[in-house]
Design a protein that fits this description.
single chain, alpha/beta, Nucleotidyltransferase, domain 5, 2 domains, six-stranded mixed sheet, five-stranded mixed sheet, 15 helices, binds adenosine-5'-diphosphate, Phosphotransferase
Length: 461
């Protein structure tokens, strides 16, 4: 049986260490705004890279014609086509396909990887028909979402800094990924071209903006996390003379690297120390889907060791890093039954542990504590962005309505997390101002968003 006498104080300490009362949220929001300012001043000026997207015109709804999108960000790549009909007809038709990337290509050469992608794209383009029509004399244009660290140099060019997420393709780092794709398409005899290279947050912003002019910020909360927003060109000192016809441009914050003033625990520090990138992406490690389950697991292991939470020994499965995923802790929190039957099954299936009701109750509390901290800190980050925008009279005080477009599996599937995020935004802004801010799920907007950016940045306009 669990020894509640020693576990209860551990839970209390965890809750204290993870607490996010209003002053902590304020500090995080202020620090986020400060770091954004520093990152806009000079490259390398802050934890936040504040990467220029070169996207300075967003979709209006008037876009017309056939456009493609290509999304490479993990073990799958996705292709999509959309036929746009302008203000009245809007999205006439879309079609998409998904291809998984063979393991060996993730460790192969640049040419092999891009040839594979180009041939997948060629196959997809071949089946175009029905409602899809390319205007006479035009080439098919692509919005290319490439979710790896890139130094963007123009709307349609960007140099790969390094592969991440398990990719180790030789010869790509330091090269323009658009040129790599263009060359592969030429080798395939495929007559298409990339008109826009976009980060997935920027794609989400563009996809949501197509439907509503008040979308100013986009946030992804999935495996990782990132955010982008609309900034005024004259508020970006490091831009040095680069002009934008609209006077505005999208800035990709790379906010996962934020680290200032976060309430962290011994469990966070240990997880970070054992990670592949110690000391990096601290905000991401505190709020995003890849890590929430793992932090919970670490807490449960300590409780099992110190207080026999699940009987005398610590189950081996529970001791395996990343055994407990964020989908599991979300499922644990959805159990409203009296005896927490579902919690018991998840613990047994995932971690191989038998639990009594008192242990299950503690597990639920631990999950809630970390979801609450994550959601509230994400909310504070959003308010930090809104505060920064306020300096140029484009924030919530000055606008009647501001929409924050949200996407990602964590936001989509974890209702408690979503509620904590909204609560923090409301607390920080106050009930009056927060009425002007709409935090809205924009599901899978990034694919269509990339195609829309190919349209807005078409070579033919
Ligand atoms: P990615 O961020 O990998 O591109 P997604 O936006 O679909 O893809 O996010 C996937 C992530 O969302 C998972 O890694 C997981 O952390 C989180 N997630 C997925 N399902 C759930 C769920 N039911 N509850 C909570 N989090 C979830």
């Amino acid at each position: 049986q669990s020894n509640l006498v020693s576990i209860a104080p551990m839970l209390t300490k965890l809750q204290r260490d993870c607490a996010t009362p209003l002053p902590v949220l304020r500090h995080v929001a202020d620090a986020m705004a400060d770091d954004m300012r520093a990152g806009l001043a000079v490259d390398g000026g802050s934890d936040l890279k504040m990467i220029l997207s070169y996207v300075d015109s967003l979709p209006t709804g008037n876009e017309k014609g056939l456009f493609y999108a290509l999304d490479l960000g993990g073990t799958n790549f996705r292709v999509l086509r959309v036929q746009l009909g302008g203000k009245d007809e809007r999205v006439i038709a879309t079609e998409f396909d998904q291809v998984s990337i063979p393991q060996d290509l993730m460790f192969g050469t640049t040419e092999d990887l891009f040839d594979f992608i180009a041939s997948g794209l060629a196959k997809f383009a071949q089946n175009e028909g029905g409602k899809f029509h390319l205007a006479q004399g035009r080439m098919r244009e692509i919005g290319f979402t490439f979710s790896f660290p890139v130094k963007q140099t123009s709307i349609d060019a960007g140099i790969l800094i390094k592969w991440t997420k398990g990719f180790a393709v030789s010869g790509t780092a330091g090269k323009d990924v658009v040129a790599c794709l263009n060359e592969a398409m030429e080798r395939q005899g495929l007559n298409m071209r990339v008109s826009a290279l976009v980060n997935d947050t920027v794609g989400t912003l563009a996809g949501a903006r197509y439907w509503d002019d008040d979308v100013m910020v986009a946030v992804i909360l999935g495996t990782g996390t990132n955010a982008c927003y609309v900034e005024r060109v004259d508020a970006i000192p490091k831009l040095q003379g680069l002009k934008s016809s609209s006077g505005r441009t999208i800035v990709n914050t790379e906010w996962g690297a934020f680290s200032n003033g976060l309430p962290l625990t011994e469990y966070d520090r240990e997880m970070d120390a054992e990670s592949i990138n110690p000391g990096e992406q601290i905000f991401e490690k505190t709020i995003s889907g890849m890590y929430l389950g793992e932090i919970v697991r670490r807490v449960l292991v300590k409780m099992a060791e110190a207080g026999a939470l699940f009987g005398e020994c610590v189950p081996e499965k529970l001791s395996t890093p990343f055994m407990l995923g964020t989908p599991h802790i979300s499922a644990i929190q959805q159990d409203n039954s009296k005896d927490l039957q579902a919690v018991g099954s998840i613990l047994y299936d995932v971690a191989g542990v038998n639990s009594d009701l008192s242990a299950r109750k503690i597990v639920v509390e631990v999950c809630d504590t970390l979801a609450k901290r994550g959601g509230r800190l994400a909310g504070a980050g959003i308010v930090g962005i809104l505060q920064k925008m306020e300096e140029n009279s484009e924030g919530v005080m000055s606008r009647k309505r501001t929409i924050v477009a949200m996407d990602g599996g964590l936001y989509e599937h974890y209702p408690q997390y979503r509620r904590y995020l909204q609560d923090a935004v409301t607390e920080l802004l106050g009930s009056e101002l927060s009425k002007n801010v709409v935090i809205e799920h924009s599901k899978d907007g990034s694919g269509i968003g990339a195609a829309l950016l190919a349209a807005t940045n078409s070579k033919y306009e």
